[in-house]
Amino acid sequence: MRTLQNTIVTVAIATLLFSSSLFAQSSGNATALVKINLKKGLTIANQGGSEIRFSDVVVTSTAQTPTVAPGKGAHFLVTGHPNKAVTMKFENVALNNADWVASNGGAKSEMKFLPKMEHTGSTSTYPGSGRVIISGNSVELVNVKGTGNLNLWVGGEMLIDANQPQGDYVGTFSVTVAY
Q1: Which end of the chain is least crowded, N or C, by CB within 10 Å?
Q2: What is the pLDDT of residues 38-80, one digit of tens each?
Q3: CB 142 within 8 A of CB 148
């Protein structure tokens, strides 16, 4: 009888052990990290309403290419996520004298402005020279107390044809920045 009791107890213990290990294998658990990188919005602003203004030029029978140094032209501040690269894109600008001709008469004409852009990182005053930016190139925003900054300076040269029609020529320089 003891043998029968021992066998029953052994079978009962084995059944409990076997069933609990079956239960442990019928479910599982795993984990994964959830991440998201939030970038600070990217903005660009003209500082102080700056312009790229050339001195008066007297028309001659010879082509001319007056220049404005980047530090003497427009100043833009790019702000965004610190240490992230931004790409700058800009193009040559066509200027025309249409408004002047409408008011004063004369021949309508166009000329080209070839921009030259430099950056001075987080330095908001032009130190005499900066690093040249070619359209389509990227530059990393400098971390200034948790905000990425990049100061852009734009000058360039005007292509004036020989005997270019007179007038006040106007065009708009535009620069696009993107992460």
Answers
A1: N
A2: 899 999 999 999 999 999 999 999 999 999 999 999 999 999 9
A3: yes
Q: Buried b / exposed e across 134-155, counting CB within 10 Å, b at 16+?
A: eeeeebebbeeeeebbbbbbbb
Residue partners of 111: CB distance under 8 A and separation at least 6: 94, 95, 158, 159, 160, 161, 164, 169
Calpha distance 104→176 (Å, rounded): 35
Give the pLDDT of residue 108.
98
Task: With CA atoms as reference, report the closest residue to 141 among 85, 88, 179.
Answer: 85
Q: Which residues, in sequence order, are CB contacts of 123 under 8 Å at separation 6+?
A: 151
Inter-CA distances, 87 with 41, 74, 135, 150, 168, Å:
14, 18, 8, 11, 33
- Note whether 143 and 108 are within 8 A (CB): no
30 CB-side CA count, 13 A: 1
- Rounded CA separation 33/13 (Å): 41
- Assigned token pair, 71: 């530090």
pLDDT at position 20 over 80: no
Domains of the chain with bracketed CATH:
43-178 (2.60.40)
Structure tokens, 69: 């140094």
